[in-house]
Amino acid sequence: RECALCKRVKNFIYRAMTSNKINSNLNWCDLLISSPLNKVSDRDRATLSDNDFMLRILSFNVLAECYINRRSHPNLPGEYAAVVFDKKKRKELLLKILKILTKTFDVLCLQELDLYEECTTALPDFDSCHSRVHPRADCCAIFWRKSHFELVESQIVKFDDLAEVIDEERGNSKDDDAESKTKQRTKRQTTAQHQHDKPTVAALSGMVQCFLRRNTASMAVLLHKKTNQKLALTSTHFYWNPGYEYVKLAQAKYLLDKLHLMAVKYSPPSTKITSYSTNRETESYFPNRIPVLVCGDLNATPG
């Protein structure tokens, strides 16, 4: 069964696509604000304990300016092209949309964001963290409502580090000599320092070079102020090319490993469980983990 929001969105999209021109009365942002997402039912409230809270989170790839040109978007209608290819108009519209979205959502996970400073200014009720690293202009970012959450810790995940990790593991399998491994690692570190901490193709070889894609992720642990409940989340962007599924798979594994370590760091101790059977007592431990959310543009299907 379709929910009421799905029906309204489908109807809105149908009307927008079948109209001959853009109708100013069709505002999808207003649709979001008046949607059931803004309303918590009495039944849902009844299921919440004192330690629970409702979280409304959005993942949104805003499309960085550097990826927009007439060659990549050749068939846009004139009304859209007039905005998309005008940096000033597009910036104003994007900031306006984000402001409207903050009326509905408590956490925004954004990808391909190249207007980070502008967003922090436009969203004064939100704090944030980002994954911007040189030389990439855009980043992944997490924005959260100040009145609801506070930051416990944030980290930047650089997926290019995968290339050095895989190259080192491959070298270890070929050569177990500790002195040789130390020399190889020192050589790579020295080369990276001279190249602004960026892994170089010259220092790597073979398929390992495929992992140098400049993709990043932003991770954070947030504390819900009212309930003191922590949660770990990430905003990520995996490599886009469908011919490199193994790169995206490695990026996903690398991210989940790091997110798991961050979640374990701030999780309470495991609960000891004692079970009894015939003439036997068995002890086991149930892991207590804080909630973990993965948001982003995974460049995968379905998705």
SSE inventory with pairings:
Blueprint lengths: L3 H15 L9 H6 L8 H5 L10 E5 L16 H7 L2 H15 L5 E7 L2 H7 L3 E5 L8 E7 L3 E10 L2 H14 L3 H17 L21 E9 L5 E8 L7 H21 L5 E7 L2 E7 L5 E6 L6
Parallel strand pairs: 1-2, 7-10
Antiparallel strand pairs: 2-4, 3-4, 5-6, 6-7, 8-9
Helix pairs in contact: 7-8
Explain this structure.
This protein is α+β, with helices and mostly antiparallel strands. Helices cover 35% and strands 23% of the residues. It contains 9 helices and 10 strands. The protein has a 4-stranded mixed sheet, with no helix packed on it. A 4-stranded mixed sheet has the order 5-6-7-10, with helices on one face. A two-stranded antiparallel sheet has the order 8-9.
- Find the structural class using helix and strand composition: alpha+beta
Q: Tell me the quaternary state.
A: single chain
The order of strands across the largest sheet is 1-2-4-3
Terminal CA distance:
20 Å
Question: How many helices?
Answer: 9
Strand runs, count: 10
How would you spell out the order of helices and strands?
HHHEHHEHEEEHHEEHEEE
Biggest sheet details:
4 strands, mixed
Helical fraction: 25-40%
Strand content: 15-25%
Uncertain residue segments: 16-37, 192-202
Global geometry: globular
What is the radius of gyration? Answer: 23 Å
Look at the structure and give the mean pLDDT.
80
Short synopsis of the structure:
This protein is an alpha+beta fold and 303 residues long.
